[in-house]
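Problem 3 from the worked examples.
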Amino acid sequence: MNKALLALIVAPLFSLTITSAVAQDEVEASAETIQEYTEMCLDWAKDDDISNEALKPYVLKCVNDELESEGYKKITDVNI
């Protein structure tokens, strides 16, 4: 019983440590990479019929999803 309880306590802490280590390894994407993702996400927004009001948040989330999937740091703003 004590080992099970210890595992329940230690496992989340170990997970946080690994996540933190991975997050520190992220690098900033080049302006060119961000621009490429922005253009791609704008195309997807057109395909998804995203309104002008929702366009910037949609593209920012899309770009950040792509950046994160490639191991880059997220950005806080996107120029469209």
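Problem 4, a separate protein:
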Amino acid sequence: MDVLDHDETRFEMDFPRAIVAQKARGREETINEHLVKLLAFDVASETRAVWRKELARHFRFPAALRVKPGASPIPARDWWTWLYADPFEHNEAGYTAGLIALDADDFTRNGSSVGAIAGQIRDFHAALVQRLGRGEACAGLIPA
């Protein structure tokens, strides 16, 4: 299972669990902000392609993380906690609205409601954490 989506050498990085958690949580906002931009704004296809490429790049790093000792993959439940539950649960619409607001002055909003986008984010993360838990590439999950 290659963690990359193109012809490069597979890489893995082993860290103690606490450091893996820190590294994952450090990417949460960037991943979710890019995801929200794809789901909430109408932009030119060239801009969407750049956002998709950036999001794919941000997935390569977490997909390569492993826990010492033994280079064990991180369970999906941990990814869920770090990337979705901690920032979103019990405030899905509020956090989603906050992420949308980060870029609302720069891009035109599409017609999707905050609630609908929050649901799409939840569904996305449900699939994402399964792949990350297996150390698989995630770029195929990125919305068009």
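Solution to problem 4. The helical segments are 17-40, 45-64, 76-88, 92-103, 114-134. The mean pLDDT is 88.
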